[in-house]
Amino acid sequence: MAHAAHHDDHAHHPTGVMRWITTTNNKDIGTLYLSFALLMFFIGGSMAMIIRAELFKPGLQFVDPQFFNSMTTLHALVMIFGAVMPAFVGLANWMIPMMIGAPDMALPRLNNWSFWLLPFAFTLLLSTLFMPGGAPAGGWTMYAPLVLQTGEAFPFLIFAVHIMGISSIMGAINIIATVFNMRAPGMTFMKLPLFVWTWIITAFLLIAAMPVLAGAVTMLLTDKFFGTSFFSAAGGGDPVMFQHIFWFFGHPEVYIMILPAFGIVSAIVPTFARKPLFGYASMVYATASIAFLSFIVWAHHMFTVGMPLAGELFFMYTTVLIAVPTGVKIFNWLATMWRGSMTFETPMLFALGFIVMFTIGGFSGLMLGVTPADFQYQDTYFVVAHFHYVLVTGAVFAIMGATYFWLPKWTGHMYDETLGKWHFWLSTIFVNVLFFPQHFLGLAGMPRRIPDYAVQFADWNMVSSIGGFCFGATQLLFLYVIVKCVRGGAKASDRVWEGAEGLEWILPSPPPYHSFVNPPLVK
Amino acid sequence: MTPVIAESHDARDGSNLRRRNLRLAVILGILAAAFYGGFILMHWK
What we know:
B: 2 helices; 78% helix
């Protein structure tokens, strides 16, 4: 440790803006990723506010339908590729080297490039808002042939998605190389923290899934500009094939956004239950099982498109099968807490909120996975409610919990616990006011992706919008807590949390610029 | 800025870590490129 601190004192790096542009340090790049994700969270959130304002009551209020559709499209792209995924990569950059006893990521220059592609990708994407014909409005799924009607924004959308994909693949390669080659002596695979395990599996998912998305959008590009007919029936192609290819990427993508969240919850729950994680090995195998299954369930997004009965049965059974390893995880978290000496600091509150509300999203997912029932739910607000429970109270709550959990380690200051708890409770109340009524709307038949609706849906839409505005406003509190903590606060100890276990907690808070230059020996 | 990782870890076990990292990155990169190209060629019309 003394050596690490000594080395840190001699770390010579540029200051000011050039430090951030040229940095190859994993902690700097982690901070860049997390800051970028937070910015995108607020940009994507602003789009959600426009959507909820328009849906506050029936009729067209504020925006025209084309712009409304652009908002739903961009909200999804920004939140998925700009907020959730970069936030997880930021957490990986900060935590994985410290957790495995490495001084940095394996490929630091690649790491810098992975991050700095993102601002360009999102500048391309968001610039389409100012183009003739408007921003892409065909949905984040970019279904052909609808998306081919996009105006001048089309090539910008395609190139932006390509760049995001390249960034993700490079980040994944870096994480795999780091974990495979840079673990401290004695840190065998079955001693890795669950967050690292979930990220390795996520990284393999990224390498397998993102090129498929890139291939799909390349095919869209050549169909539009170079005379191919991949998805044009007139030229011998098949528009439904786009949906198959997209969801062959899209379903693993769902798990790319949730597996690291499982790792976070698996770090937080044992810490505040003051017990080791129950069923470590089963957690690893469950994660791997979920990853495998994620590649053989894609057509459950397309039950109503039409496929042979055998296909519908296959995709229904494989989908429902995912409940088994997911149930193993929920059981293990509950068993970890069983008879533990639990305390309820903000990270633990977010982890508990995750377990309860992600499970709600999981159950509605099971309902959607049942083919005949899905014929009723398809393209209704029930689907919107389902995936927001999974992604907001799932992935986003886990990211917020992780932020509170590790912020004292990163900054050396304790955050304001009172405000943190306010943030949790307000978020939890309002996120349920926002999304739970959408189940009712969907079951009553309200279609998704529409700016206007029948008056029978008015009441629950108003409730949902009020929840949305309050949830959005509550996130300003999150921003305030983070800024306040970065700027100062009570000194955080090295271990920070009484029950914290792992290599990252033996480092000072904040850790040296290059931690573990001399690798620790893990027993 | 010069990354610090390679030399410190090279010193640890005597192997060329920088080369091992690069080799793994290239293998994974080729894998990703193969998926990309393969999916396009598979659906060529």
